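cron nightly-structures :: item 1 of 1
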Amino acid sequence: MCRFDKSQELLKRELKVSPLAAQTYSKSYRYFCEGLAPSYMERGEECYVYDVDGNKFLDFMCALGPVILGYNNKEVNDAVIAQVNKFASGSLQSELEVELAEKLCEIIPCAEMVRFVKNGSDATTAAIRLARAYTGREKVLMSGYHGMHDWSIGASENNKGVPKAVCELTKNFKYNDLGDLESKLKGNDVAAVILEPIQADGPQSDYLECVKEITHRYGAVLIFDEVVSGFRYALGGASELYGVKPDLVAIGKGMANGYAISAVAGKRELLDQIEQGVFISTTFGGDSIGLAASLATIRVLERPGFYEHIENVGKIMRNGMIDLIDKYGLNDILSVCGLPAHCGLSFEGHGSLSYLDVHSIYSQTMIDNGILVFAVYNLNAAHSKEEAQRYLAASEKAFDLIRKAIDQDSVDGILRGGKVNPVFKRNK
């Protein structure tokens, strides 16, 4: 059994000076069983991470998605180091800014112009501002998670601190439900429809094309939030995968193998709003380190075989989980959700067990078996069939314990530490 003494000491120190002891909610200690999991990472290598206590874990989190090629990728590192030796942020732009913008316009179906920012939230917020300026309208319809800014988080359960007037400008619509979307567009006062184009098991047949038609019929701008799906399912994201061009797309996470960069891209007539006074300007938007990392990452992703590889590994994991759920009779408790390259489990309670009890048993067991994962896994280029089988072997042990907890209607003798207790609530 691993020890986490140094992690625990660092955690105590950080809790005194930093809320939740993490800068990202989903990396907080509260997403694991307290005292039984690492909180601080020393280094990464391909699909493995080493914590500050020297423990080695097979990583299926991949920094919440950005590490798409694997940790410490030589080609990306070389490009970054070469640029570090020149400059990071300068008094003038880097030529890499031109090269990457041209490359994105080449590979992203809707991209005619690009604006670089830093986080996914920055990219979606830039897209919304452009849509509002272009249409002269204020209201937004959204489906999915689109970042921390007021316009988006105000329509979620995490809306403390957001003015009520702002909250009222954004409404949620149901994914894969065209009737719900159209009913909320009928006032002809919506500036933008923004959605994560791949949610759960993906869009129903022709759903995205119909969303585009309905959105345009009511004079709104269609935005695909591909911060998660971009570069993960196809080089051109869901737009390429399903053959539907939105007006704007927000990208981030997988575009630079863990380096900080994001962008909004799309039609020239929309991006031209920046020339006409729409303010989208950040000090580090043109940071050359992220630009260098992104160009190097895309060069690797363009080579044949990457997407087929993670699809095949993901299918082994996805199909294996379905079989194990059947084997242990857990179909009412666990369900597999997602496409092979980005997939995972949904948890339900049973009897006196809450869904957090079930999730906690799973989390504790995976850590005990050297696997770092939330409910959902992310794959990178270094994951192989061997790692997929390790994941399934650990999952089987977790499912066995979940079955035992259900049969005894208690977690006694099974859970050893604190329960998973997430702060962040995603929209249902």
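cron nightly-structures :: done
The chain has 14 helices and 14 strands.
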